[in-house]
Amino acid sequence: MNKTVLITGGAGYVGSHCCKAFANAGWSVVTLDNLSRGWRDAVRWGPLIECDIRDEPRVRSALQTYKPDLVAHFAALAYVGESTADPALYYANNTAGTLALLEAMRATGHLRLLFSSTCASYGVPDSLPINEAHAQRPINPYGWSKMIIERILEDYGRAYGLASVSLRYFNAAGCDPDGEIGERHEPETHAVPLAIEAARNPVRPFTVFGTDFPTRDGSAIRDYIHVSDLARAHLLAGDMLLGRAGTHVFNLGTGVGTSVLELIETVRRAAGSDPVIRLGARRVGDPPILVASYAKAERELGWRPQRSQIDLVVETALKWRDRHPSH
Predict the structure, then answer these.
(1) Res 33: pLDDT
(2) Which pLDDT band, with edges at 50, 70 and 90, does 160 fall under?
(3) CA 172: distance to chain centroid?
(4) Active-site residue, selected from the candidate residues 90, 142, 169, 224
(5) What class, spelled out in words, does domain 4-172+225-252 have in CATH?
(6) Which of 55, 98, 182, 208 has the fewest Cβ atoms nearer than 10 Å?
């Protein structure tokens, strides 16, 4: 039987990779995106509804028209610094926007949601690797805007029977190995594309924020997960939701940390040139190490990372950048 997924934010980085994964698995894909930070040319699998998630009547109309078996929700703003400077924007778009989406779903009887959450909801960890039972103590409005949604999903599950899966990403990285879609942000804040750009463009140095962390080389350590591994996890979680009620949460990471200086060395090898680097002070609230446990996702979804070796992550991102230097 043909299955349909409505993907909000499907014109963005992770959303577009998930559109491809669902389409390749035989799902009919419908993208809903206001294109404020997504890209029209990234919508390649099914129709685009150009719409803001806060436009509840239009979202309700889309649900009634396409009757999706599942809603996968990626539409959000995701810059930590911007969220600190303008928290109202983040609570209005991320939190209130999701509430409007949920009300449209409830009004039309669509009660399965796959939610793009974040490890930013944990804040500074007490122990490593971080599992789903770890306390959530966000240190910025972006993390709070996502954590509040998780609480809303729990309440909607109890009161209205909404079935949901929240997937807490660690550092999404890399690009589609086929080269069809890639990573584009304006401005770019992700470490991998910034390091690659510093290797290709000497006027755009890469800033290392802190070299005095209590880590093996003094730079911060992060858990980089390939976006295609993320997409596959969403597909497995979506299939699970079709036959399982309740509210569920999974970490998506690799269990392996890569330091910023190790990332720079990986980029140097792959690019064949030295990234131009600048040393900066630590950023307020940056934990020394963030590494995930994915044991629960492996146990309940049958998922484990397959493409997230840091060399492969950088290789796919570098190929995308070299094919699309203007992006």
Answers:
(1) 97
(2) very high
(3) 6
(4) 142
(5) alpha beta
(6) 55
* Pairing outcome for strands 171-173 and 224-226: parallel
The model's confidence at residue 1, banded by pLDDT at 50, 70 and 90, is: low
Residue among 9, 301, 249, 275 at smallest CA distance from 118: 249
> Is residue 142 annotated as part of the catalytic site, yes or no?
yes
Supply the DSSP symbol for 40: G
d(CA 143, CA 139): 7
Six-digit token string for 114: 């796959």
- The torsion angle over the Cα atoms of residues 262, 267, 272 and 274, rounded to 10 degrees, is -70
**CATH superfamily placement of domain 191-223+255-323:** UDP-galactose 4-epimerase, domain 1 (3.90.25.10)
- Local structure of residue 121 (DSSP, 8 states): G
Contact between 123 and 110 (Cβ < 8 Å) = no
Q: 57 is written with which tokens?
A: 């009547």
Give the residue from 173, 169, 192 showing the smallest Cα distance to 292: 169
Summarised one tens digit per residue, pLDDT across range 26-85 is 999 999 999 999 999 999 999 999 999 999 999 999 999 999 999 999 999 998 889 999
Strands 112-118 and 70-73: parallel
Q: Where in the chain is the domain with CATH 3.90.25.10?
A: 191-223+255-323
Opening angle at CA 175, ends 189 and 217, nearest 5: 55
